[in-house]
Amino acid sequence: MAAIDKVRVLVVGDSGVGKTSLTHLIANNEPLTSPGWTVGCALEVKLHEYKEGTPSQNTFFIELWDVGGSISHKNTRGVFFNPTHGIILVHDLTNKKSHENLQRWLIEILNKDGKDAMKSGDTIEIDPEQFLGSTQFKNLQIPILVIGTKLDLLDDNHKNKILNRTSAGSIAEQCGADEICLNCHEARSIAAGTTDAVKLSRFYDKVIERKYYNRETGRKYAGAYNTASFNPFGIPPASNTTFYNQSVPESVP
């Protein structure tokens, strides 16, 4: 049996926005009954059919790297940021600040090795819109998907506003990315054939194409893929990378 190729997708966002519940739902097609706090990074894997139903159909593994959002780990979690083939930015629809912070998450990932560049006592001013619109960002062309969670916690009025709002000025609009709003406790949220499932599939296809396919010919690159050739951050690939226990109960301090 031929080996199945894989791509690596970072799933990032503030602590408590529901990244673990989201990745479990995506990978297992069922809600996570007892989510916990992620320490370090948790890994979920999904089997995806690239360009399903077409002559180009091929099977890939989508690795979902659920990176813990604790501020205390900001200077160490950069080890999980390389290589990156796609990014899912996650925010809590009931927490406006978590959406605003997605800009900082993206900057952190794209900031060389992902570590906090500021030393103690230093200050730095960043215009996220200017950064995201920079030539550097456009040249990266890393596929991005924005997902808002906890749709079930909004009342009908706020839910309608969220679902019918325009993306003007949002990070999704700045990145040219699709945006999904869902309830991670409902398996049907991303059931096959739904609009959100189509957006997810389209995102996976873009990630796969970014790593494996020649955009001009549509053909897969010949030979084994060399991770070092995809190095948008200008740093060598991490070696012997390990990640910590997937999660701990929320009751643990």
Could you explain how this protein is built, in words?
This protein is an alpha/beta fold and 253 residues long. Helix content is 26%, strand content 18%. It is built from eight helices and six strands, in the order βαβββααααβααβα. It has helices spanning 19-28, 96-100, 102-110, 128-132, 135-140, 156-164, 171-175, 195-212, and strands at 5-12, 41-50, 58-67, 86-92, 144-149, 178-181. The protein has a six-stranded mixed β-sheet, with helices on both faces. Strand 2 and strand 3 (58-67) form a beta hairpin. The chain is globular, with a radius of gyration of 18 Å. The termini are far apart.
Please tag this protein with its features.
single chain; 253 residues; alpha/beta; six-stranded mixed beta sheet; 8 helices; 6 strands; 26% helix; globular; disordered C terminus
Structure in a nutshell:
This protein is of the alpha/beta class.
How are the secondary structure elements laid out?
Blueprint: E1 5-12, H1 19-28, E2 41-50, E3 58-67, E4 86-92, H2 96-100, H3 102-110, H4 128-132, H5 135-140, E5 144-149, H6 156-164, H7 171-175, E6 178-181, H8 195-212
Parallel strand pairs: 1-3, 1-4, 4-5, 5-6
Antiparallel strand pairs: 2-3
Number of strands: 6
The unreliable regions are: 113-140, 222-253
Q: What would you call the shape?
A: globular
In quaternary terms, these chains amount to: single chain
Radius of gyration: 18 Å
Helix content: 25-40%
- Which structural class do the helices and strands define? alpha/beta
> Biggest sheet: strands, sense, closure?
6 strands, mixed
Number of helices: 8
Mean pLDDT: 78
N-to-C SSE string, H for helix and E for strand: EHEEEHHHHEHHEH
Separation, N- and C-terminal Cα atoms: 46 Å
Percent of residues in β-strands = 15-25%
- Give, in spatial order, the strands making up the sheet with the most strands: 2-3-1-4-5-6
